[in-house]
Amino acid sequence: MSQLSVYSDSHFMKQAYNEALKAYENGEVPVGAVIVCNNTIIARGHNQTEALTDVTAHAEIIVITSANDYLGSKYLNDCTLYVTLEPCPMCAGAIKWAQLSRVVYGCSDDKGGFMKFGKEMLHPQTRLEFGIMHEDCSSLLKNFFLERR
């Protein structure tokens, strides 16, 4: 039986997925995120657009703000963002300006994701990876929308 390393991408994406489950339970689009610095989660969050009546209350924006507060800095250049869904262009802009060193997302968003505009939306030094827990992240979103139709 294999165990997840406490410092693996899979471990941290699982934490983001747990945040997405909280959004799901609250009737929010189930997207969750965590920001990691020096192998420590410094921010956790999930979509709260309905709860806060705020279209900008995406998981990524919430964790970027929280991580900025935690570090006392507007730059997160030694941090990694783990998010269950490919960020939208608004969130990609925030990721760029925060200068995150790395972004890891679970599943793609062909309709609303930033990648249709290209990786250039991110800071040039930001490394991008995707596909961690793809099936879990994708299934959660599909089930959420199927239940609402």
Helix and strand run: HEEHEHEEH
Mean pLDDT equals 95
Cα radius of gyration in angstroms: 14 Å
Low-confidence stretches: none
Number of helices: 4
Q: What does the main sheet amount to?
A: 5 strands, mixed
SSE-based structural type: alpha/beta
Main sheet strand line-up: 2-1-3-4-5
Structure, explained:
The chain has a 5-stranded mixed beta sheet. With 149 residues, it is α/β, with parallel strands linked by helices. The protein has 4 helices and 5 strands; from the N terminus they run H-E-E-H-E-H-E-E-H. Helix 1 packs parallel to helix 4.
Provide a quick synopsis of the model.
36% of the residues lie in helices and 20% in strands. By secondary structure, it is of the alpha/beta class.
Task: List its traits.
149 residues; alpha/beta; five-stranded mixed sheet; 4 helices; 20% strand
Give the topology.
Elements: H1 9-25, E1 32-37, E2 40-46, H2 59-71, E3 79-85, H3 89-98, E4 102-107, E5 127-130, H4 134-147
Parallel strand pairs: 3-4, 4-5
Antiparallel strand pairs: 1-2, 1-3
